[in-house]
Records
---
Amino acid sequence: MSEPGDSRRNSMELIGTRAGTAMPIEMRQALHLKGLIPSSIENFSKQELRAYGQLMSKSTNLEKYEFLAGLRSLNANLFFLLVLNHFKDIAPLIYTPTVGEACINYSHIYPFLYPYKTSVGLFITLEDADNMDMVIENHRRLMPDPIDPEITVITDGSRILGLGDLGVNGMGIPIGKLQLYVAAAGLNPGRTLPITLDFGTNSERYLNDPLYLGTRENRPDDETFYKATEKVLTGLHRAFPGLLVQFEDFSTDHAFGLLEKWRQKILCFNDDIQGTGCVILGGFISAVEQAGIPPTEQRILFVGAGSAGVGVAKQLVDYFVIDHKMPRDKAR
C-alpha cells in the first residue's frame, strides 16, 4: 500500500526528471539528492548545447534517432527545445527518411529507445479491441498530466511509407508524425496519442524474426478487421469525444474503407488520401499558372495506384469538376 506522501514524491520526481541538471536546489533537497548528483544548476541553454553536441557526435542517422528517442523519454522539455531550435537538422531524423530505417528495425531497438518505462502510445491487439475502456484507463494512469488527447495518428503498419507491411514496427510513423505537429504547429505533446493496431502481419520476415514484438499471426480477414477497428474507434470516441483521428499508412483498400465509413461519424481524415492530395493539388495549381497552359489542356501521368496516388487523382478530378465545370467522366 502506498504512503500518503508517495504521490507527491512521484510528482516531484517527474518534475525533477524533466528538469534534469536544471533541477533547483530546493527540489534536490526535497528529493534527497544532495551529494548524489553534480552540484552545478544549469539553464536550458546549457542543456541544449550539450544535447545537440551529443546528437551530432553520433555517426549514423539511426543512432541519432535512438539518442533523440531516449532524450524525449528522459527530458521531454529538452527534446522539444532541441527540435524547435534545430528543426532542419532534426526533422529528417524523427521522420522521413530516418524513421523508415527505425521502423524496419523497431523490434530490435524498441527497448533501448524508451528506457524509462514511459508510455509512447497505444499498441492495440485484436483482443485489446474488446477491452478499450481498460486500455484507455491504463493510458490515463501513466500520463503525467491529467489531460485528454486532442489528436491521434493511428496506423496498422500494413503499408508503411514505401516499405510495405511492417506490422507493429510501424509505430515509428505515428510517433514521428505527431512530433512534427508539435514542433511545426505548436501542439501540446501531452495532447497527442500515437496508436498502432497490432492486428498481425503478413510479412514472413517479421513472423520469423525471434525478436519481433508484435502479434505473430497473419492479418485478419476484412470482416474481423472492420469489426475490431470499429470497437477501437468507438472506444476512443467515447473516452475523447473531440479527438481528431488521422488514419495513416493503411493498405489501400482499408484506407478508403475506413475513411468512407467514419468521415461522417467522427472528426477524422486520411493523411495519405486527403493530406497528400491537398498538397499535390496546390502544387499543380501553382505549376499550371507558371506554365501558361490552361488546366483543362493538361494531361497527368500517375505511377502506381496506392492510397496516396488514388487520393491525389480524386482531388484533381474534384478540382476540374468544381472549378472548371468539367463533366466528371471527362475530368477523369
---
Amino acid sequence: MDDRSWMYRDSPQGLRRMDYCNGVQGFINFATSIPRNFTDGDIRCPCRKCKNLKFLHQDVVTMHLLTKGFMEDYLCWYAHRELFVPDESMEEQVVGSTSSASNMHEVGNENSNPYRNMVMDAMRMSEGNVRECPIVEEEPNADAARFFDLLRDSDEPLWDGCTNHSKLSAVAQVFTIKSDHGLSEAGYDKIIEWARSILPEGNRLKENFYAAKSMMKPLGLGYHKIDICPNFCMLYYLENAEMTKCMTCGHSHYKPRTGRGKTLVAYKKLRYFPITPRLQRLFMSPRTAEHMTWHQSHHAVDGVMVHPSDGEAWKHFNSMHPPFSAESRNVRLGLCTDGFNPFGSEQSGAEYRCLSSFVD
C-alpha cells in the first residue's frame, strides 16, 4: 500500500499540511472515478463524524475531511471499493493511490481480492441498508456493523507483515479443509491450537471453531430444523408441531427423558434449506445474475437447442403465463432425476426418468 501516513499526521496549530490537502483531493478523485460509489449523485463521507454512514456531495465530503479529518483505521478505502490486485511477485496489496485512480476497476475485476468480493456478494442487502441510514451520529446498525467487520477482515492480514492470507481467507480455507475431510469440531480446535502456536505472536487466526463459525455466519444462508417421524411418515410441522406421536405409525415424537432433563429431544430432525433466499443470493452477485437472465438475452439458432429456453416446453410455458415470462428475473425450477425408481426395488427393472419439469 502507498504511504498514507498523511491521513493521520498531526498538523501544527490546527492547520492542514499541504500533503494532507493533496491527499484529500486524491481520495476524492479516486472515489469519484468509480460510478458505483455514487448514490443519487453523492458519495460516502469517511470523516470522523460521518464514518461512511452518510452520502454527501463530493464538495461537502472534501470540506468534512479538511475540517474533521478521516475516521479511524481507514487506511484502506474499502467502503469506496478499493481493491486488492496481485503485483509482479503475486503478493496481494492494496492499490489505488492518489495518483492511480484512473487505473482502478470496480468490484468484479477478475484480479480483485476474492474474499472481499465474497463479502460484497453475500452482504449486498446489508450494504443497501447502510446507504439508507440517515443518522450519522449513531453507531452502525447490526447489519451494517457485520458488513464493515467482514470487509475489514477480508483486508486485514493474518499477522502484521503477512502478504498471502487475510484474517477472513485463513478461516475460510480452514473451514473448507474441515468440510472436505470431515473433521470434528474437537479436531478442528486442536489443529487451530497447534497452528496458532507456530504462527507469529499477535496473529489474528480465530482461536476455535465456535469463534470462526460466528465470524463466518453472516456469509451463510440459514436453515430450519423440523422434527420428523423416524420412520419418515410425517413432519411435525405447523398444526402438527405439538403432536407427541406419529399419526401414521404411532412412533413417539420424543426420546424418553433421562435423569432430570426437562428438554424434549426428538428422535429425528430434518434440516430444511429454504430455496427463496438461495435464489435471491444468485442475483446479488453481478457475475451470477448475468447467468440467471441469460435465457432471455441469448440468440437462439433455429434447429439447435443449447438451453432449455430453446425447447418447446419452455415456449409453451411462456405462452401460458405471459406476465411471468415477461420478467427475465423470474426463475423456473427444472426438476431432473436420472435412474430414480419409485415403483419398486432395483430388481424390478422399472427405471423412471423425469426431465425438464418447470415449476414457477
